[in-house]
């Protein structure tokens, strides 16, 4: 009868409400869960962007340091070449002197050696081929030692200077002319780095 039908309708109505309420809660949970996932994804994305930005900054800084170090090295190499080229000798194998205009070249060397503990100067003596090879080696060594004394007088630390001789084995010009022999009787300065 009607009472039963009415009670049955009421029961069905309550079940529908409960069902709708449960679906609502489930929907809210899903929405919250999706929001949480998106939030986590955004946080991970931001962390990655920050990490990439810091890595880029570190890379750029390292590259700037490398370029600066290379520039200083090249300036030191050029300064050494200029010192060797501008040296003035009173007579062959004498201790050379230097014109005032290359004082800045010495400043460059002082600074570079002070900043780079692994750096030193290699002084190499060369000769022409008018004397025998064994004697030319000795003369080349004396030439290098004389130049070392000149550098020490200019304030370069003695422990930062090494000497070597190539004798007449590395000519840069023909020994058949006076001009060529003068070019071959020379002293070269080079930059020496322990880790290279």
Quick overview:
The chain is mainly alpha-helical. The protein has four helices and three strands.
Can you give a write-up of this model?
- This protein is mainly alpha-helical and 196 residues long.
- The protein contains 4 helices and 3 strands, in the order H-H-E-H-E-H-E.
- It has helices spanning 2-86, 103-115, 133-153, 178-184, and strands at residues 119-126, 161-167, 187-193.
- Strands 2-1-3 form a 3-stranded mixed β-sheet.
- Helix 1 (2-86) packs across helix 2.
- The longest helix has 85 residues, at 2-86.
- The termini are far apart.
Structure characteristics:
11% strand, mainly alpha, 4 helices, elongated, 196 residues
Write the layout of secondary structure elements.
Blueprint: H1 2-86, H2 103-115, E1 119-126, H3 133-153, E2 161-167, H4 178-184, E3 187-193
Parallel strand pairs: 1-2
Antiparallel strand pairs: 1-3
User: Beta-strand percentage?
Assistant: 5-15%
On the 0-100 scale, what is the average pLDDT? 84
- Radius of gyration, in Å, reads 41 Å
Shape: elongated
Helix content: 55-70%
The class by helix and strand makeup works out as: mainly alpha
Q: What gap, in angstroms, lies between the N and C termini?
A: 105 Å
SSE order in H/E notation?
A: HHEHEHE
Instruction: Report the count of strand segments.
Output: 3
Sequence stretches where pLDDT stays below 50 over 5 or more residues: 1-12
């Amino acid at each position: 009868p009607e009472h039963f039908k009415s009670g049955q309708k009421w029961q069905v109505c309550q079940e529908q409400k409960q069902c709708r309420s449960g679906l609502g809660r489930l929907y809210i949970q899903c929405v919250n869960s999706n929001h949480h996932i998106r939030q986590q994804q955004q946080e991970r994305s931001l962390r990655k962007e920050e990490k990439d930005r810091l890595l880029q900054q570190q890379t750029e800084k390292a590259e700037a340091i490398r370029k600066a170090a290379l520039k200083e090295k090249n300036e030191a190499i050029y300064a050494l070449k200029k010192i060797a080229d501008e040296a003035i000798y009173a007579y062959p194998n004498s201790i050379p002197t230097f014109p005032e205009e290359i004082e800045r070249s010495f400043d460059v060397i002082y600074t570079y050696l002070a900043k780079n503990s692994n750096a030193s100067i290699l002084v190499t003596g060369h000769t022409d081929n008018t004397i025998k090879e064994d004697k030319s080696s000795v003369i080349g060594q004396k030439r290098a030692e004389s130049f070392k004394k000149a550098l020490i007088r200019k304030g370069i630390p003695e422990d930062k200077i090494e000497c070597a001789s190539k004798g007449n084995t590395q000519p840069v010009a023909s020994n058949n002319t006076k001009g060529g022999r003068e070019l071959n009787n020379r002293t070269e300065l080079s930059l020496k780095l322990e880790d290279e």
